[in-house]
Structure formats: C-alpha cells, structure tokens
Design a protein that fits this description.
Elements (H helix, E strand, L loop, with lengths): L2 H12 L14 H7 L4 H10 L4 H4 L5 E6 L12 H19 L2 E6 L5 H11 L5 E4 L6 H8 L7 E3 H21 L7 E5 L3 H9 L4 E6 L2 E2 L9 H7 L10 H5 L4 E4 L8 H4 L6 E5 L9 H7 L1 E6 L14 H10 L7 H13 L18 H10 L2
Parallel strand pairs: 1-2, 1-3, 3-4, 5-6, 5-8, 8-9, 9-10
Antiparallel strand pairs: 6-7
Helix pairs in contact: 5-14, 6-7, 8-9, 8-15, 14-16, 15-16
Length: 374
C-alpha cells in the first residue's frame, strides 16, 4: 500500500488529524453563565488562591504540549515548523487514542536554544507535561536540561522513548539467545538524540558508539560534551576503527540512516548476534540481508517486518503515569521501570517476537502502573 499518497489524501480531506471538542453543551443562558461569565470567575478565584488546583479544575491535569522547532523531523531533517506540524498532530493523536491524554501540537518559529527554552517555560502553566519532539542534536540535550525544574515533567521522546523501547527489546532478545546484558558488547551507529540516550540507558558489558566520522573515542578532538561524556563510561570500548568495534560484538543498534551497516561487519560479530536496524523508513540493513549475514534476531522500526521497535510503545504509558501521579519531573528510575515493564509483557519471547504489538492493550497500563508504583 502507498502510505505516502494515502496520508496526503487523508490530510487534504480532513485538514489534520485532531480537533478540540466540548465536554459540555451551551444551549441556554444558564449554561452560558455557568461555563463562562459570571460563574467561571469562582473557578479562577479558587485557582488564584492555590495554583495547584488548576490541575483538578481545568484541562491542565490531562494536557501535554508536543513541542517542536522543526529542526530534525523524522528522517527528513530541518524542514521547519509548518512541515513538522503533521508529525506533531500524529503524536497528539497517539497520546489521545492510546492513553486518553489531551495533547496539543505546538511548533516554534525559532531554533534558538534560549528562545525555545523561554517559550516552553512560559507556556508550562497550561500543561501537566511537555513532550519535546524532533529537535536536532546536540541542541535537544541542552534544551531538555535547561527545562528541568519548571514544575512539570519535560520528556524528549526522541531520546528517552526510543531508549526505553530499545532497552526492553534488547532485554528480551538477550533472553532468547541466552546472553546476559552485563556480558555483551554493543555497537551503536548514530550519536544523536536516540543513540546517546540509548548508550546511557542500556548497561552492557562493553559499548562502542559511532557518529558520522567513525568510532567515538577519547583521542578525538571534535567531540561535543555529550559524546565526550559517553567515552568516560567504565564500560566504554575505545575502538580505533570499525572492524575493531565489530570484532566479537554481540549486538548492533542502528539509529543512523539507510544502508549504513555492511553485511560483512555482521560476520565479525559473535554467534547468536542481534541486529536492531531502526532507521525509518529504510533501515541500516534489510532484515533478509542481516539474517543471511548471520544475525539470529533482527528488529527494525517498521511495522511490515517482525520485531518492530517504535517509541509509541513507550511514550503513551510514560505520560499516562506521569500525569496520574502529578509528577514534577522524569527520573532515571522511571525510565528503567518503564523498560522493565514493557519487556515483561512478552512472557516467552522468540526470535520473531521480542516486544508486544502497538495495539496490545496491556502496554499503556503496564508502563503507567510501573511509574505509579515506584
């Protein structure tokens, strides 16, 4: 099916994927006086006395702002805020359908870090959480860091949602091949938001991270502070070249781009190797090629192959949990608990099923409960 054409026709027919609907109807003056002036003044005065009541007396308590500056949209790059809007609409739709959350797409006509931070801080009173989306690295790291402590959770899904699902998938894949996380060597292609976040969340025995210039190591003088941080990890392997990195590796994780993984590199890996080729719409290597080269378990970001790894498995449940407990921030403990909860849904993982499907009704409550029970 040509989903590109179908999506464009859908957009032309519907003018977007979401809309705002009223919870009440105004059919007479009493209704108007209750919903708006003069009755609404009483609600405002209650909140003025105690601002925290806004979460209970208005839409705030179930609202998430999905914020993007359009600088890194899907695999399309820096296409701007207007072009990012369809993607943000889709994210809002998913939050509503899977987690019952009222989400609003907010696209910004600035890519200046100070301005993005300022805008988000100033709109925060109207929301219970902020979902940062499609903001390019390394700017995305600074934006998220500077927004911590604003009184509501700020969650960059390209980083943490992706990392949570990868961690869950890898946990179950290792169960299938009979290996342990703290004993395997992991190679990651892509040192942007998803790659660096995954490197921080996954705790393998040995780790190598690649950017567009090759393996990241402490001898390079062109690394930003976020890449440098990874090289200081106790388990970081200081590879000098790609062959050295892949020698005896157990796991490949790709968040880099189409066709980036040469099949010959898989032959350098350990037996029972795991390949997560997650670039969309075209993975780092086609699943059939990865299998032919010797990989035992292969996952992609696509729904038309087995083992889809998609952050929609994480973020609806994460935000549902955050909103239900009125969280002020997202913690590392919450991310780890979310990954563990997601992996637990598949009781007996197999080579072709290491994660639940996006439509498994246990996913959102399992993750949200894991956060609420911390």
């Amino acid at each position: 099916m040509d989903f590109y054409t179908k999506a464009l026709k859908q957009a032309e027919n519907l003018q977007g994927k979401i809309k705002v609907e009223s919870k009440i109807q105004i059919i007479n003056n009493d209704d108007l006086s209750t919903a708006y002036t003069p009755g609404v003044a009483r609600v405002s005065l209650e909140i003025a006395k105690n601002r925290s009541k806004a979460a209970d007396l208005t839409i705030k308590g179930n609202s998430v702002a999905v914020v993007s500056d359009g600088s890194s949209v899907l695999g399309l790059g820096n296409i701007g805020p207007e072009a990012a809007l369809p993607v943000m609409e889709g994210k809002c739709l998913l939050l509503k359908q899977f987690a019952g959350i009222d989400a609003y797409p907010i696209v910004l006509n600035t890519q200046n870090v100070d301005e993005v931070v300022s805008v988000v801080k100033n709109i925060a009173p109207g929301f219970a959480a902020i979902n940062l989306e499609d903001i390019s690295a390394p700017r995305c790291f600074e934006v998220e860091e500077r927004l911590q402590g604003i009184g509501i959770p700020v969650f960059h899904d390209d980083q943490h949602g992706t990392a949570i699902v990868i961690h869950a998938a890898l946990t179950n894949a290792l169960r299938v091949v009979g290996k342990k996380m703290d004993q395997v060597k992991v190679v990651i292609f892509g040192a942007g938001a998803a790659g660096i976040a995954t490197a921080k969340v996954v705790k393998p025995g040995s780790l190598v991270l690649f950017d567009s210039k090759g393996p990241i190591n402490s001898g390079r003088d062109d690394l930003n502070i976020y890449k440098k941080e990874i090289t200081q990890y106790r388990n970081y392997f200081q590879a000098e070249n790609v062959d050295q990195a892949f020698k005896d590796a157990d796991v490949f994780i790709g968040v880099s781009g189409k066709g980036k993984l040469d099949p010959d590199l898989i032959s350098l890996m350990q037996k029972k190797s795991i390949v997560f080729a997650l670039s969309n719409p075209d993975p780092e290597i086609a699943p059939i090629e990865a299998k032919r080269a010797g990989a035992q378990i292969v996952a992609t970001g696509r729904s038309d192959f087995p083992n889809q790894i998609n952050n929609v498995l994480a973020f609806p449940g994460v935000f549902r949990g955050l909103l239900d407990i009125g969280a002020k921030k997202v913690t590392e403990e919450m991310k780890q608990a979310s990954a563990k909860a997601l992996s637990s849904i598949v009781k007996n993982p197999t080579e072709e099923k290491i994660l639940p499907t996006l439509f498994d009704k246990k996913v959102v409550p399992t993750i949200s409960n894991a956060i609420k029970n911390l």
